């Protein structure tokens, strides 16, 4: 991490969806996709959001960018509040915040050549003249490992890894300070995943970009992240630096999540911890700690009081936040 200066500050972020199915249908409790989430991202840092499918990772990331309007909460970029800005005010801040989507093909316009796709953000914001934009596009192609002549090709003529490189080049075009990576390698082959992850790390080292990295592949997270935030049913239950979280997790859910990672050596016995029961519905989450219905440590207080995300002593004085009554 290049600096400890806070770039992004998220406080008490919530996103609830109405469950009403029609005008005359009975009212139902809202679906609490994200509920009271708080975290910081420093300049040049990679914060990974991990958790099982449906826990609210992508909804959190898109709410930060206001691609989805949050129900409530605060999102500040360099100290400026983003929630409540008008469309035009938000448009100006979008130059500093970009996203790399999960599906590298669906996120590219099939009617535009690759060079037009990468140059579109520059044209939309009136950056440079036509000649300078062309030179900038060529430079961006070289930065992400694509040949300049590939600018004339269309998305269907590229492989999956090359398409994701196009997405990365487009995200870099306006020189953003923050890039949300929404599972950017999950649709790629393993060998290509490594190339894209290494590319992201090289670009971060060169330009000081901060990443909010949404992923479910913990091997990728361990390679790229500086800190990791673990989500369960719309809540963050643990935040710690990468090495601490993987070597000494504190929250029971984090321990269970890490135990599910395959062991590469077949002679090493796997220490799987099996979860009991089914995941609760976000439309009707449990009271108190949301994990208590499946937690091996649960006691009466867990169903009555929600544990705050509070600091614990970490190795070497590192910050370690845990939401658990007994850890």
Structure description:
The protein contains ten helices and twelve strands. With 327 residues, the protein is of the alpha/beta class. It folds into two domains: 220 residues, P-loop containing nucleotide triphosphate hydrolases (Rossmann fold, 3-Layer(aba) Sandwich); 79 residues, no CATH class. Strand 7, helix 6 and strand 8 form a beta-alpha-beta unit. Helix 3 crosses helix 4 and helix 3 runs parallel beside helix 5. The two termini are 28 Å apart.
Order of helices and strands: EEEHEEHEHHHEHEHEEHHHEE
Structural category: alpha/beta
Oligomeric state, counting identical vs distinct chains: single chain
Helix content: 25-40%
Number of helices: 10
Low-confidence stretches: none
- Tally of strands: 12
CATH homologous superfamily heading of the largest domain: P-loop containing nucleotide triphosphate hydrolases
Task: Please give the largest β-sheet.
Answer: 8 strands, mixed
**Strand residue percentage:** 15-25%
CATH structural class of the largest domain: Alpha Beta
User: What characteristic shape results from the CA principal axes?
Assistant: globular
Strand order of the largest sheet: 6-7-8-3-9-10-12-11
CATH architecture grouping of the largest domain: 3-Layer(aba) Sandwich
Return the average pLDDT rounded to an integer: 90
Distance between the termini: 28 Å
Q: What would the CATH topology of the largest domain be?
A: Rossmann fold
Return the domain count.
Answer: 2
Write the layout of secondary structure elements.
Elements: E1 6-17, E2 31-42, E3 46-50, H1 57-65, E4 72-77, E5 80-81, H2 87-93, E6 97-100, H3 114-124, H4 130-143, H5 160-172, E7 178-182, H6 190-207, E8 210-214, H7 218-224, E9 227-232, E10 235-241, H8 242-247, H9 252-259, H10 300-304, E11 310-313, E12 319-322
Parallel strand pairs: 3-8, 3-9, 6-7, 7-8
Antiparallel strand pairs: 1-2, 1-4, 4-5, 9-10, 10-12, 11-12
Helix pairs in contact: 3-4, 3-5, 4-5, 5-6
